[in-house]
Known about the structure:
By secondary structure, this protein is an alpha+beta fold. It has helices at residues 3-22, 119-129, 149-163, 184-190, 266-269, 293-296, and strands at residues 29-30, 49-57, 62-66, 75-80, 88-90, 94-97, 104-112, 133-136, 200-205, 215-219, 228-233, 245-247, 259-263, 275-276, 283-289.
Amino acid sequence: xxxxxxIRTETDRMFRDISxxxxxxxxxxxxxxxxxxxxxxxxxxxxxxxYSGAVIDVTAGATITVPxxxxxxxxxxxxxxxxxxxxxVFHDAGVxxxxxxxxxxxxxxxxxxxxxxxxxxVALINALQDQxxxxxxxxxxxxxxxxxxxxxxxxxxxxxxxAANLPNLKGMMGPRGxxxxxxxxxxxxxxxxxxxxxxxxxxxxxxxxxxxxxFAATFEVPENRAFWSITMYGATGFIECERSLLNSSNxxxxxxxxxxxxxxxxxxxxxxxNRLDTPEGWNFMMRIYLPGPSVLDGSYVLxxx
Length: 305
């Protein structure tokens, strides 16, 4: 298996798995509550957006209807083809034609959640999820998944290790002809379904630290036109702790506008704001939605904990 065939294979697997959860093609699988620890369908999900995903047969044309989103919150539909290219992101309310770059395309809906603990807000987002509507002229099934899963798993582990040495995932996602073909397999392995950088930047932190003491770092607030978040993961890239999210809605700022994050248990760190629990092999990802120039040009960097 090569990097090129890995991308198609991993995307085939994701298409298969999510279409099974949805009950077929042209149907959404909605995650109705902040990502449950036991319902993480891909690695490096987050808990400050609610996700919906659908595999769509576009061979006879297909559209997606996007509802009006209230109160200025961020919402988007990322379209992904079967080779993990992302030709378009929809934001505006209305009916949008889905490109037919491959026979089946994937629609990934994200809606911002200000407070994951607010049941009324979660109910509001659930109602919005139901207003995203797919209309397709055909409902042909996906091809049978017939790949060597052992090779797939081995390459994924190798590419995830490569991702740990990169500061971000810039250049790995976007339309055909506008991505770095030498490294985009790393995105398919370490963060399948991520945005191109103009929609969101992803900054990785792999400190190699243990869980035996508290680590702290002071951050500048990243320049953005939507919001930012930090999500804590375990060694395998999944959320393992309930206290795993720090973002622009729940952060406590310092007097100078920066914020100090503390990483470790309450027993080690004390009762401090902006604290995240740290599982074994902990690492985190900062997401910056609609990033500003200082983020896009690389001048914004993460501090070291």
